[in-house]
Amino acid sequence: MSLTSEEQEIRCVQHWFQNWTPPQRAEFLNLLIDKYSPDTLDLGRNFELLQISSNCPSVFECQLKQFSLWFDEWSLKAQQLRPYDSRMLVALGEAYEKLDKLKEAKKCFWKAHAVGDVEGMALIKLARMYEKLNEEKQSAAAYTDYIRDAEARNATDRDELCHAYLYLAKYYYEHLKLEEAHDNAQKCLDYPETKEDAKTLLRQIAARRMQTEDNRNNSNQFRNQNATTPATGHLSPMNLTFTP
């Protein structure tokens, strides 16, 4: 399948980026962040032509100049093609993350997921961003959706999957959802990176189940008072959803 001119230009910029030095990458990312606002997220809306003052521009400066020209052309065709490119949104989110601007990064990863993630990386990055921001419920929901999508496409993203399973196992354990915690911890046993943590967590789950059973038996003494104690491992399902 042939690439469009815009896709060829994006790949060209990606190739340049891979060959730039760290300072050059930082300069490019700062330029992109200054001109590409996460609140508008339209290609080229506020992107002005890069002004190069040097009388004899370097190859890097020429590349930035060419990028700015291409970016303006992309913006003119954006509404005809598609209003957002998830790859650019993910790249921008990564740039914000490197600058420790986590809320801005979260917005970019959310938008990339919402508009249709081309490379399948936005959702796991969004989940990790929720985790860094201590938004536990949002993170658990995003990890759950990521696992569902990864399993549907037979993904082999071992590092991401084992981290997602372990996060959910701990999350459900802390919220007394022992069945869900046990299921996710069991899946962690398949990965060397999380195997030992999973063993520890499974022992904790078993101990809590025994404590729950003891409490249930003790509650039988009060049946004449119609007292009931809900089973800890069978609480109603959580409604996990995530928003930006």
UniProtKB/TrEMBL annotation:
Gene3D superfamilies: Tetratricopeptide repeat domain (1.25.40.10)
UniProt-annotated stretches for the region Disordered: 210-244
Top-level taxon of the source organism: Eukaryota
Gene Ontology biological process terms from the UniProt entry: anaphase-promoting complex-dependent catabolic process; cell division; positive regulation of mitotic metaphase/anaphase transition; protein ubiquitination
GO cellular component, as recorded: anaphase-promoting complex
InterPro entries given in the database record: DUF4508, TPR-like_helical_dom_sf
UniProt keyword terms in alphabetical order: Cell cycle, Cell division, TPR repeat
Name this polypeptide is given: Cell division cycle protein 23 like protein
Protein source organism: Argiope bruennichi (Wasp spider)
